[in-house]
Amino acid sequence: MEFLDLFIVALMPVLKILLVSAVGLFLATERINLLGADARPYLNNLVFYLFSPSIIFSNLAETITLDSLTNLWFMPVNILLTFIIGSALAWILVKITRAPQHLRSLIIGSCAAGNLGNFPLIIIPAVCDDDNSPFGDSSVCSTDGESYVALSMAIGAVYIWSYVYAIMRLSANKATKEIDSNESTIQDSASGEIPYSEICPEALLPSRGSPTSQEDTDQAEVPSTKSEGKAKVSLLEKANLHLKKIFGYIDFKKIFAPSTIAAIIGFIVGIISPIRKVLVGDDAPLRAIYNSVSLISDATIPCMTLIIGANLLKGLKTSGVGPLIILGIIAIRYIILPSLGIVIVKAANHFGLVGSDSLYQFTLMLQYSLPPAMNVGTISQLLKTGESECSVIMLWTYAVASLFLTLWSTIFMWIVA
């Protein structure tokens, strides 16, 4: 197909997202106020507790089988790579821009977690239904696309509330400690008292005759004569301590969010054939239950997209994020990550880690080019750090998403087709 034809195919679903988001933005204005500050939390709760779990369960139960799951094993790895690479690039951005401590968790979350929910849910089915689609028969494409999107949403939800939440919480706690330390210093200065560490800095240093607790541990476990072995053990212990520290910041209650529970149930129904035959299908005895859940799931895409538009309104009224930080996040999410995504997916295809299905490869590449996940804002609110700045970052990243998503979708289709 010609590049221009692919561009038009890629443009249509992005325009749908843009138009529905604009409606959400309009409904959130003070004059209309249908999705104002009071209404948005209720709609958010409906999406979080009802609509999103419904669409994940219904799509997984219908499309995922044991055979298809074995063929899609690379997708969880691919999504994890997007999170790890994004957070590593965010760390570099923080160092370059010298971002304030209270913004670092937000920058890391925005670069690490992509919107694996409503964007693929709109883009992939729309591309399949287009007459000029490069992915063959529309019915087969739509069925396969639903399974890819459902698995993407389920895995993404687990990673966001485990990996992203943990590193954002770790960074937010550092910001809190820094603020508390500054406040205590100010209070000491105001009261005229000088901290003891400034009078006698040697008090903070270990005495010559007594090693630190870390040195105690090393000396107790390794003889002093074996310096090389001691160094190795020390490095291993440090790595172990860092891992324990990160795992300590994982909130397992939040990992098992409604979407995660729905994904687990959906996998069980889809993989176990007897349960699947009871619930899914025209002849299933309990098909009314599945059909009801599927009916509820139809509201997910419009509601999620309306919320995105409504949440962007706050970004028009606030500031506080430097242009260099915003440009850095845009460069990571829309230039560096998609470019690396092409290399990773093509390399995986070369080594036989992914099949020859062009739609599957397109989905894997698309996961690298999405705007920040809206759950990053939810996490910022929970951690009470960077709440107002989050809306500014979301505004600009979603404003330019229409252009970059269209361009990258076109390039991805041109590559895999």
From TrEMBL:
Highest taxon, organism lineage: Eukaryota
Transmembrane residue ranges: 6-29, 41-61, 73-94, 106-127, 147-168, 255-276, 288-312, 324-345, 395-416
Protein location: Endoplasmic reticulum membrane
The keyword Transport is annotated on this UniProt entry: yes
Keywords attached to this entry: Auxin signaling pathway, Endoplasmic reticulum, Membrane, Transmembrane, Transmembrane helix, Transport
Membrane topology label: Multi-pass membrane protein
A Pfam family annotated for this UniProt entry: Mem_trans
GO biological process, one term: endoplasmic reticulum to cytosol auxin transport
GO cellular component labels: endoplasmic reticulum membrane
Disordered, as annotated region: 207-226
Role this protein plays: Involved in cellular auxin homeostasis by regulating auxin metabolism. Regulates intracellular auxin accumulation at the endoplasmic reticulum and thus auxin availability for nuclear auxin signaling.
Similarity comment text for this entry: Belongs to the auxin efflux carrier (TC 2.A.69.2) family.
PANTHER family: PROTEIN PIN-LIKES 3-LIKE ISOFORM X1, PTHR31651
Record's protein name: Auxin efflux carrier family protein
Gene: LOC115986715
